[in-house]
Amino acid sequence: MAEILVNIGIGDFEVSRDRNTSIITRGLGSCVAVCLYDKVAKVAGMAHIMLPVDNGRDELLNARFADTGVPRLFEAMIKNGAEPGRITVKIAGGARMFKMPGGSSLLEIGERNVEAITSVLSELKLKLVAADTGKDYGRTVEFSVASGELMVKAIGRSVTVI
Amino acid sequence: MSKMIGSLTFKQKELLERILKLSADSSAVALSEMTDKAIFLKSPEIDVVPLGDVPAIAGGNDNPAVSVCLLLLGEARGNILLMFPGRSAFKLADLILQEDSGDTDELSEMAISVLGEVGNLVSAYFLSTLSDYTGLSIQPSAPMIVHDMVEAIVSSAMLILEEAPDEILYIETNIADESDTIQGYMMLFTDEASLHSILHAIETR
Q: Where does chain A have alpha helices with state H?
């Protein structure tokens, strides 16, 4: 069990090499947690992505947007000793929380986030090994630095580990 | 520019507050008639907040809540979100239906329908008052009911906005009954272009 929980908020990212740490983010709806892991160097990183494309005004250099946030997380992983060829990726979230008869493309933001992330990952030549995305419910995720396991919790559902 | 929102003028703020107060009062009367109990919508607060701060402001985290979300259609884009933490939505539905849902974790079809009506009512009063003041024609969509984690609901509602602004006009009011067993919040999210047209229309009227 991890002794230290590092909580990341919406649009933030965090990298850790401390094996007693788990990185956690709560209440993902249409947002997606992107989790990068180098199992040899034991470096783990998570980004809480909100939207697919940077609006160009993001001065905080955080991880709000898939197209800029995932590369930032990747660079931070490398700075912390991860080898690009060894990094594996797990993602969770990207739900469609709201449904309407007849539908509305505005409600598909979760799907669009997942698509954008998948395309950035392939540009960076990063390997997606597991995903728990889509559907219609919120998720809280916990990513263990020691094991690289991603625990996914949802209301009224059993805990899954990917 | 997004910075303009941060400098919401005194007049803009005052007019928005007046619109909210009027519609909150009408909603409270209608809700009281529906429930046969005194329902209050506490004095609304208006603030301009950075996008990233919104989920935390609304109570945040992964506790359960029931929400009613309605999209704005017509001359503004955005959405109205009613948020009832914990069992508040169950209690509200029980009050209106005059029954006791006990400890059930699932909303009944009737409860979902009743909460949708509450959403229709509150948003109709707000949007018609807003129309009176701005001349803009804005209608609510059909209500969407979600029972899930607070932060998952709030962040997803906020991100329905087609273009995520840096800052959001955030309006919050408390919906409560006399014994304070029902707690609810109303939030309004608009994108920057819609906010500009609303503020412009208010000022030039």
A: 66-79, 109-123
Interface size A-B, in CB pairs within 8 Å, comes to 106
Q: Do A97 and B152 touch (CB under 8 A)?
A: yes
ipTM of the complex: 0.86
Domain ranges of chain A: 4-161
- Contact by Cβ (8 Å): A68, A107: no
Containing H/E element for B28?
Answer: helix B10-35
Q: Is A112 helix (H, G, I), strand (E, B) or coil?
A: helix
Count of C-beta atoms within a 10 Å radius of residue B104 = 11
Kindly state whether B86 is in contact with chain A, defined as any CB-CB distance less than 8 angstroms.
Answer: no
- CATH class of the domain defined by A4-161: alpha beta
- Which domains occur in chain B, in start order? 3-203 (3.40.1550.10)
Amino acid at A96: R
Predicted local distance difference test score (pLDDT) of residue B26: 86
Cα dihedral B102, B107, B113, B116, rounded to 10, equals 110
Whole-Å CA distances, B202 to B20, B75, B80, B133, B192? 13, 14, 19, 6, 15
Q: What token pair was written down for A131?
A: 């995903």
Instruction: Inspect the interface and report whether the beta carbons of A30 and B144 lie closer than 8 Å.
Output: no
> A107 with B69: CB under 8 angstroms?
no
Nearest CA in chain B to A7: B61
**Structure confidence by residue, pLDDT tens digits, B141-193:** 999 999 999 889 988 888 887 666 666 666 777 777 777 667 788 888 887 78
